[in-house]
Write a structure and sequence with these properties.
mainly alpha, 4 helices, single chain, 77% helix, globular, 109 residues
């Protein structure tokens, strides 16, 4: 039971960060593929446009989540899910600070 809770917890965190990333990408990047920092997404936006690229990203991410749920009984899959989620959050935090979405209250310079 605790293993399933752990898997669902990390999947919910992954859904939150991916949804936020896709909305910010649509809003701030749009069709300007040169602004995208992730090479695969940049190439996808260049070749297919922003809307199809967002759907391709969703398909890839939800397929990954389904794979994680399907094989959640394996320790290696749970660790992989946790590491992917942590890396995604760390990569997005810098963008959140740059956009001013997240700011330290004591950092007013």
């Amino acid at each position: 039971m605790a293993k399933q809770f752990l898997v669902w917890f990390w999947i919910v965190l992954l859904i939150i960060i991916h949804t936020t990333d896709m909305e910010l990408t649509r809003h701030y990047i749009g069709e300007s593929w040169e602004k995208e920092g992730f090479p695969i997404m940049s190439l996808s936006i260049k070749n297919f446009g922003i809307n199809i690229s967002l759907w391709l990203s969703r398909i890839a991410m939800y397929s990954f989540m389904y794979f994680c749920l399907l094989y959640s009984h394996r320790y290696s899959v749970r660790i992989f899910l946790i590491m992917i989620t942590i890396l995604y959050w760390m990569a997005m935090l810098s963008w959140f600070f740059t956009l001013g979405i997240v700011a330290f209250p004591w950092a007013t310079w």
